[in-house]
Amino acid sequence: xxxxxxxxxxxxxxxxxxxxxxxxxxxxxxxxxxxxxxxxxxxxxxxxxxxxxxxxxxxxxxxxxxxxxxxxxxxxxxxxxxxxxxxxxxxxxxxxxxxxxxxxxxxxxxxxxxxxxxxxxxxxxxxxxxxxxxxx
Amino acid sequence: xxxxxxxxxxxxxxxxxxxxxxxxxxxxxxxxxxxxxxxxxxxxxxxxxxxxxxxxxxxxxxxxxxxxxxxxxxxxxxxxxxxxxxxxxxxxxxxxxxxxxxxxxxxxxxxxxxxxxxxxxxxxxxxxxxxxxxxx
DNA sequence: TCCTACGATGGACTTCGTCCAAGTCAAGAA
DNA sequence: TTCTTGACTTGGACGAAGTCCATCGTAGGA
Lengths: 136, 136
Hints:
By secondary structure, chain A is an alpha+beta fold. Helix content of chain A is 30%, strand content 21%. Chain A starts with a helix and ends in a 5-residue tail after the last strand.
């Protein structure tokens, strides 16, 4: 059983075959699948798994902080299992592919108090846009 | 006629009443409307304007670089007419409202060459997330 | 004023995601 | 091991956001 599954059991997650398959599909680095791709890959191993279950499970993994939602303008959300190591994203404007990157600096600290307008700022998301070697 | 409309005419834009109304709705600072809100406000002045026209016009304004699309996870896109002055966004996780902010620092420079993986990085988008005073 | 290519229309369609009632099953209790 | 129960899954309906397209209308140049 993967580390992820072990942690989930430790949190009282009921371990069903569907959840196991979804968690396994999301294993690895630089994985940024859409819900539909997750469903496709999960269905390859467990043909009867439903779309609703995939959405439910992804939502739970996000709520538990095990998986990040990556926002992509005008496309389907992507899910990033690498939530435990903080990182940002580099997105190709051509083909939509995503790389994890680790900028230096402190983006959160770069926002002065005067620019927070009374908001309680909890996180910052930095997305670099450009063209990958294949699309350039 | 606003500056925006003047610029658009200069670029050969055919000025129809529909486009004029959409451009007028998007005038001002700290305006971050969804396509639907734009349609609603435009229809208040020009009742027969169609959704398709609003989408077309917004798409053209984005392509011309006059308006920015603001990505919001799991919600409708918002359109930001303040494309000419560089800024970033502070988004309320509760109600989805958006403020323009101006962080210090150089987010683009914070990405080391070794972390660019051969990409031609053109821009960076920084989104701060938190709760506005009303939702906190 | 007339022409015509560009733009607008609205309704069908697609994509992405959520909801729900009914059926199923993991895992603790006995 | 079997029972029990409530959490989980299912599939289909639904909804929101956005796109497409055939047809009609009109801005603006001749």
